[in-house]
Adenosylmethionine-8-amino-7-oxononanoate aminotransferase
Amino acid sequence: MSTIEQLKQDNAEFQWHPMAHPAAMKKSKPDIVARGEGCWIWDVDGHKLLDGVGGLWASNLGHSATAVRDAIVAQLDELPFYNTFRGTSHPRAIELSAQLVKMMEPDGVASVMFSSGGSDAVETALKLARQYHKLRGEKDRFKFISLRQGYHGVHFGGMSVNGNTNFRRAYEPLLPGCFHIDTPWLYRNPYTNDPLELGEICAELLEREIVFQGPDTVAAFIAEPVQGAGGVIVPPANYWPLVRKICDKHGVLLIADEVVTGFGRTGHLFGTRLWGVTADLWCLAKGISSGYVPLGATAISAKVAQVFNDDKSGQAAVGHGYTYSAHPVAAAAALATLAQIQALDVPGNAGRVGAVMQERLRQLEKTCSFVGNVRGVGLMLGIEMVDDKATRTPMPRSSDIPARVAKEAYQRGLMVRISGPNLILSPPLVISLDEVNHLCDVLEASFAAVE
Ligand code: PLP
């Protein structure tokens, strides 16, 4: 048996994959990615593909950012690992915290707490939110409100605020006190076709839920500035500003889960900036280190930090953290990534070439009989496939159409991601205009081939 055949067999035999049936790899051919360069990847069979997935919303600088690679190697030579518990630290963690706070100073960020990924960053934010209220003497504020279709990772807290039952059912019962409200989703809602009216209605749903629960019991509202995994759902422009006001009115913290939207994907450095608001806590990961080494971070606003810093009760020690919080190699990768984001104006590129991608692929709504809705902003885009365009009847789960489109794209040299009825695109943020046009050419041909 060839080495490649052995790899494929061992993959099916020994490895359980996230979000997959353990036996799935025995039945379907996995995409085994062996090499990357720029915005391109090669599978084990040597087939070259444009990376429309960006690793998984993560490889923002592409696969050969020399500056990040060099920083990682230098750090491995200097100090491969040390912890940051209690009185201990190391230079890269300190430099990264200072750099991040500087970048987020306009957003009112005062401090940052590191972890190892997005789910960790969410868990940290949820726990800090509860502790914040306890320190302020509001001990009953333990509940969380979140959006349907939202995705906040897979730990028990994040899973409990997740808005998709697929990720919850097998692990219930979850955290008590988590409530879900309708997401402002223009294509699918029972209320209105007018975006601003929808923004108002959905913001009002938040206020009604807070009042119904009792404002003095609600710790935080958590949401993604643009929902990613749920199908790239972009809220109306008035939604986040209204949400900010409602949270302030009722003393509820606003947690922005920017694991996907952080560091430029929407064309703005942070998704909250897209909406002109600030949060109280931000969850960051993925693009923070361009996926080169796992890292998560929770950014803490001055408002929240002050309550911890000023505490006299002795309860403000944060009883939370991970062995690999601010892992030196990850911190080095992140420092180099942040420098590149600024030097290359990565958000600016995402905005410019993203606008071309959005404009071109929106045409599929007109040209393809089974594309119901194309939506997104910057370099995040979702194409929702439907059973019936006129009635917006959802594509049945049993349909093979999404997988067939993805296969056509793969054969033409483009990696895409299918999530339910949605084809999701999140290419590296350094993708060029030529590459984006190529991506659109290939995708148009792939949809046409399945017509
Ligand atoms: N939050 C959001 C918005 C995400 O999209 C993700 C992952 O895709 C997470 C949290 C969880 O991140 P991780 O998979 O790094 O734990």
Remarks:
- The CA atoms of residues 240 and 367 lie 33 Å apart.
- The pocket of pyridoxal-5'-phosphate is lined by residues 117-119, 122, 151-153, 224, 228-229, 257, 259-260, 285 (CB under 6 Å).
- The chain has two domains: 31-61+345-450, 68-343.
